[in-house]
Amino acid sequence: MTLLTAVHDTPAGPYTLISTGTAVCAAGFSASLEEVVILVPRRLRNEPIEEVAHVDGASDAVLAWCEGDVEAPLSVAVDVDGSPFQRRAWAELRRIPAGRPLTYGGLAAALGSASARAAGRGCATNPTSLFVPCHRVVRADGAAHGFAWGVPAKERALAHEVVHARR
């Protein structure tokens, strides 16, 4: 198998995705393949990576997100490894509607956990940002906080989604 990677300009900055061809296995708001490739599941890390201009499905969803279809990335499958808690957290993140961020405490409650820190850890270990929209989780005061790709990218992604969210 050859993994495919593409970089796209987005309202939140450059965005790199890596795909198996059928599912996204790593992604983030960076133009650096080296920063994103470390998120690829261990079982896929020895696979060759081919740089392409467009990865069918995944690139289409990113470009649709850029154009205002802010839920488009949720239609793309992800191929990631994680603990049972991480998988539950990532599934819950995909349920957060665009334009209506959830607090870390709210995510913890949705996960049945008393710990906002545990919920935050679920966000922090997400290897497929945008496809699993961890940027939609904010502090109790509504401020953006703790984003692997930088708080400015998180703020821009949230602002983009607020403008385009279906209400």
* Broad shape: globular
Helix content: 25-40%
What is the strand arrangement across the widest sheet? 3-2-1-4
Biggest sheet, in brief? 4 strands, mixed
Q: Number of helix segments?
A: 6
**Average predicted confidence as pLDDT:** 95
Beta-strand portion reads 15-25%
Which blocks of ≥5 consecutive residues have pLDDT under 50?
none
List key phrases describing it.
single chain; 167 residues; alpha/beta; two-stranded parallel ribbon; 6 strands; globular
Explain the overall architecture.
With 167 residues, the chain is an alpha/beta fold. It has 6 helices and 6 strands. Strands 3-2-1-4 form a 4-stranded mixed beta sheet. Strand 1 and strand 2 (13-19) form a beta hairpin. Helix 3 (84-93) packs across helix 5 (116-124) and helix 4 (104-110) packs across helix 5. It is globular and about 40 Å long.
